Amino acid sequence: MLELAVLGLLHEAPMHGYQLRKQLHARLGTFRAFSWGSLYPTLRRLQRAGLIAETTDTADDTADEGAETAASSRSRSSRSASRSSWGAKTRRGRRVFELTAEGKDRFDELLAEVGPQAWDDESFGIHLAFFSRTPVDVRMRILEGRRRQVEERREGLRSTLSRAGEQIDHYTRELHRIGLESTEREVRWLNELIAAERGESSPRSPDDGPGTTAGPSPHGA
């Protein structure tokens, strides 16, 4: 999934390594935490595969240079000095990465993928972040797949609570209950997104109860 995230960000604009790291955290930090240790090996692999190319930006950027140097210094304990400086500013200028034609094709290929790998907990948020570039039919299949997965999880939690009865203590019951509430909220949110994709008004979930409606769709439906 880091490959999809990197290609997606470089599809928007060329970036140097520190900019990429900042954008990954700004755009996807809610879903995943990315480290220098995982980012730079991914960049090297994408470069070897011809999906991204490296150019040199001679513009001076002291603030970014200082931040990147500090971050690189913190990572030296787990990598060799040559690896920790890869992608940093050199005397010739900062190394900037940009998408190649093959990289654009690969990005489109990754966006078109549907299946459990596209809606599981690890990757759904990353796919969602690039939905504006994803074909409508693919978006729908991913949203519906995610909804099925979360609905199954919700029913499993309901069943667990029902069967457990008094056999579990108060705190374990609360743990299951908060998990159930979280899945119910996500199902309602997914219903809104799916309705917006279909151009429908926000539906009322059977679990909302009488007299309540789902909140407004993020898409304004």
TrEMBL record:
Residues 194-207 have a biased composition (Basic and acidic residues). The keyword Coiled coil applies. Residues 140-167 form a coiled coil. Residues 68-85 have a biased composition (Low complexity). Residues 6-59 form the Transcription regulator PadR N-terminal domain. Residues 57-67 have a biased composition (Acidic residues). Residues 57-87, 194-221 are annotated as: Disordered. The keyword Coiled coil applies. Signal peptide: none annotated. InterPro entries: Metal_resp_DNA-bind_regulator, Tscrpt_reg_PadR_N, WH-like_DNA-bd_sf, WH_DNA-bd_sf. Keywords: Coiled coil. This is PadR family transcriptional regulator. It comes from Actinomycetospora lemnae.
